[in-house]
Every structure is written in structure tokens, then in C-alpha cells.
Amino acid sequence: MPRTAPTARQRRLGTELRKMREHAGMNVAQAAQQLGVDRTRISNTEAGRFGVSEERVRALAAIYSCGDTAYIDALVDMALERVQGWWEEYHGKLPAGALDLAELEHHAVSLRSMQPMHIPGLLQTEDYAKAVFSTAVPDLTAVELRRRLSHRLRRRDVLDRDDAPECTFLVHEAALRMQFGGAKVARGQLGHLLEASERDNVAVRVIPFSAGGFPGAGASVLYAAGPVPQLDTVQLDVATGVALVDAETLVTNYWQVLERTQGLSLSPEDTRDFVRAIAEQL
């Protein structure tokens, strides 16, 4: 039976198979003939509506003359995933983008984000997150607020895994000075940020006002590295929720934006001193 609502990761696997076919210069009809299936099978697989076996992935790679074994193995791993993630508990209860984000973070090898106005979600305290959600328009109901808060806090568990991703968080000074929830909540958040910055897999780097302008200054960007570069993904916060970007040129551009911005940021050690100084002013 075809999937009625494939996840972002299932759609991504289909997208990669489509890219592989297109790089081989084949159309859908040619691929279907080579594989010995109906062309709708190829179309549905590439749309993420049908699952695909390891054998089918490797057969398609052979038909498309793809010799990148690391890339093929990574696609096979995606195809073999059968266990639902914890975020599926929120299916139909939160926007699909929230689930896509949790899934993206869960599978990332490393994460690098840039936040101009908020503390990164993975580093937010419960009080701070609640204060941020309380600014939503239209107002969230009590149930909606509780669900979003629960989901936000569960996302943080990715940092505690044995195979936790390496994370770099670029945070603008404006985000440190925004007092969501008031001074007490802000002090607690900055204290939590300092504690998180001591983790082996976490680097927090502040972009001070004195750094001036920087590329992408108005956007929140999350770069999630996959097991191979072809599976890197960029997540953007947009007015309608979450947008995932996987087009190679755009992904490369966002990598360069983050590289340049990180070059303007303070070192992790200087960042801790900077955060402490702001906390003392509250």
C-alpha cells in the first residue's frame, strides 16, 4: 500500500534515487524497463510513497552506474529504517515541520546553527521555551502549548546520546539580550547555555554586535550533516513553519554563509565570558 503521508526522510530517499536516475541520463520509462517494473513504481518510489528494499536500492544504483559505495550504503541504511521515532507520537498533533525537524536532528552526524533572535531550540530551558511559544500569533491553546513544549524538550535528548552529533551553535548577541519571560527566566536560560557549552560535543559561539553585518543576518539556519555530503540538509525557519533545503547549490551556499559567520564569532572561551557578563547585567 502506498504511504499517504511519507516523512521528510522517506521523501529524501526518493529524491536521491531520482537524482541518481537523472545523473544517469535516464527517464522514468527507461528506468522502469531496465528494472522490469511499471513506470508508476519508479514514480511512487521517487515520491516516497512506496518503501524500497536494500536489494532495490542496489539494483537501481547498478542500473544508474553509480559507483559511490558510501553514498549507496547511506541510502540503503535509510531504506532499511523501519522503527518509528519518538516524534511520530506527535503526528497529527503538531505541524508536520516540527516532526521533520526532530527527525533531521536525530539522524544528523553533526549540526551547525545560526540564531539571530532566539537561543537555539536544543539549548532552551523549559521556562524560556514556554515564554517563546507564548508569543505565538494566534495564541496557542493550553493543549497546543503543552504539546509544543513537550516536543521541544524531548528534542534536547539528542545531545545526550552516546553517538550524539557534534554541534556548533552560532548565537547573536541580540538573542542573549532578549528577555523572553523576564529577567529571571533570561538569567536561567543564560546559565543553562553556559552549562551546555561545557559539553564535549557542544560549541557555543556568540556573534557580538561589534562584529557588524554578516551574511544571512535575518535568518535562522540549521545545517545538518549526513553520513555523506550528498545527504546534507539545511533547515530554515519560515513564516509558515519549517522548510528543508537539499538542492546542492543552495546547501553549499548556506555552508559558506555559516563559515563566514563563524569567522566573525567569538571563540567558545570568550563566548562564556561574554555570556557571563550579560547575565550579571540582568
UniProtKB/TrEMBL annotation:
Nucleus recorded as keyword: no
Organism lineage string: Bacteria, Bacillati, Actinomycetota, Actinomycetes, Kitasatosporales
Keywords: DNA-binding
One Gene Ontology molecular-function label: DNA binding
Gene3D superfamilies: lambda repressor-like DNA-binding domains (1.10.260.40)
Protein name: DNA-binding protein
SUPFAM superfamilies for the chain: lambda repressor-like DNA-binding domains
Segments forming domain HTH cro/C1-type: 17-72
Originating organism: Streptomyces violaceusniger
TM helices/strands, residue ranges: none
Entry annotated with the keyword DNA-binding: yes
